[in-house]
Amino acid sequence: GEGSAQTSIQQGLAKAWCYGSGAAAVTNSLNVSGGTDNGTGDYTYTLSSALANANEAATANSFSNGDHSASVHSSTTSAYSVALFNQNGSRYDVINGSIVHGDLA
Predict the structure, then answer these.
(1) Which is it for strands 26-30 and 57-62: parallel, antiparallel or unpaired?
(2) pLDDT for 9 beyond 80
(3) pTM
(4) Between 10 and 69, the higher pLDDT residue
(5) What is the rounded CA–CA span in Å between residue 53 and residue 76?
(6) Of 55, 33, 57, 53, nearest to 45 (Cα)?
(7) Residue 6: pLDDT above 80?
(8) Could you give the CA distance from residue 22 to residue 43 in angstroms, rounded to a whole number?
(9) Residue 55 to residues 23, 35, 67, 73, 81, Cα–Cα distance (Å)
(10) Is the backbone of residue 9 left (phi > 0), alpha (psi -120 to 50) or beta?
(11) How many CB atoms lie under 10 A from the CB of residue 52?
(12) For residue 23, how far is the Cα from the chain centroid?
C-alpha cells in the first residue's frame, strides 16, 4: 500500500493492458471490462477498476505488417480511447494493444 516498502513497485506496475481486435473486441486484458468500436480506427476501452484521476501515462500500438501508428486519447478515470492510422494518415481498423500506468482509485 501507499507509504510501504512496496509503494514504488506498485506505482511502477501497469494498472491496465488490453489486446483488442480490429473491432474493439477484448481478446486478452488486465483491468479492461470491454471495448467499443466508435468507427474506423477509433476504439474505447472501459476499465474494470477506475483510476484515481485521468492523468495517466498510456501507450498503444498496432499489430500489423506495414507502416501504421497508434495513440491513446480522450482518457477519463474509467476509460480511454485508442486511435489507429495507416501509412497515409487515415484511420485504420487493426488488431491493437495498449498499456495504462497510473494510480488506482
Answers:
(1) unpaired
(2) no
(3) 0.89
(4) 69
(5) 7
(6) 33
(7) no
(8) 9
(9) 26, 20, 29, 11, 14
(10) alpha
(11) 12
(12) 14
Could you give the count of Cα atoms lying within 13 Å of 31 in the half-sphere of its Cβ?
21
Cα separation, 105 vs 102, whole angstroms:
9
Q: Which pLDDT belongs to residue 66?
A: 78
Taking only the tens place, the pLDDT of each residue in 62-77 is 988 878 899 999 899 9
SS (H, E, C) the chain: CCCCCCHHHHHHCCCEEEEECCCCCEEEEECEEEEEEEECCEEEEEECCCECCCCCEEEEEECCCCCCEEEEECCCCCEEEEEEECCCCCECCCCEEEEEECCEC
* Alpha carbons 45 and 48: distance in angstroms, whole number: 10
